[in-house]
Amino acid sequence: AQTFLAKVGDTKHRYVSRCATRAGATVAFYARLHANRDAQVKFLTEIRLLRYFRRHQPPFAAVVPKLLAWGRTPTFEWFTREYPLAPPLGSSRRLARQPSQTVAAAIGRTVAQIGAIPIRRLPFRIRAFRSDDYRIVAQCASIAGDAGVPARTCTALQRKFTRARPLLVRGNRTLAHGDLNLGNLLATDKQFWIIDWEQVHANNFAYDIGYLWAHLWQAPRPIRRAVLTGYLAVLPARRRRDFQTLLPLVVAYLCMGGVTWRAGREDQAELQQRRRYYLQLLQRCAGPFQTLIDT
User: Fold this and answer.
1) Cβ partners under 8 Å of residue 207, min gap 6
2) Cα–Cα distance, 137 to 163 (Å, whole number)
3) b/e 13-34 (16+ beta carbons within 10 angstroms → b)
4) Burial of 265 (0-12, 13-18, 19+ CB in 10 A)
5) DSSP 3-state assignment of 115?
6) What is the pTM of this model?
7) Cα 101 to Cα 278: distance, rounded to the nearest angstrom
8) Closest by alpha carbon to 131, among 271, 246, 294?
9) Bridge partners (DSSP) listed for residue 118
10) Each residue of 105-119: pLDDT tens digit?
């Protein structure tokens, strides 16, 4: 634990380690580190959600490592889960290994299945991502000068957001993993797993796929296309029109962070490449839907 704390400092609010049980099985052990209410709520919510998955077996249960044990002490909570022997696709927005198109499509299908779960089915409350949290217009204006975003892009996004506002409000009712970055996807050539559900919340059904798709900026276009193809293969036809409205707004919201975010070990060339990609993606969010998904 001391080595872990020395490495991450105060950037992580929980400890995680690969451990061996007395029976010789390999498991992942998690424990909350910091004494604050937000960290505790996230930790307990993940335990409750994994318990719910274990009891109700959703269609994607096989890709969620099973919760094995959990408990509380006077000062912290802990749990153990299965430990898939597979590396992550990367870390946050940085792609370390490319999934096969088959696995990419399967990930897309699973994300659609996650977004099909109404939060009213859950026997516990989760936080909600409000429509006002999509600060697209203000964020676009704030980075327009420094990042070189054309004023017409911000204007077009403002029109799209205004028209979609009622849909964002009424559609904020489905389950979202909330943090489908590349570090939370483990994969082999034929299988994958989704881990770390602490950011789970209520959102619109397009949030998770938009989040993942935007984080795959380093992946070849066929991989990004396979993710969307898999997703759309499962998405009900009645949701297709709403998806075309929601995805550009979700991606635009995430592009703002992609333009301004900087990894600690990112070199200048990679930084500029990423910013160019997100600027292009942001501008395409303001245009036709097909142009966006062809990026």
Assistant:
1) 115, 129, 176, 178, 250
2) 13
3) bbbbeeeeeeeeeebbbbbbbe
4) exposed
5) coil
6) 0.92
7) 23
8) 246
9) 174
10) 999 999 999 999 999
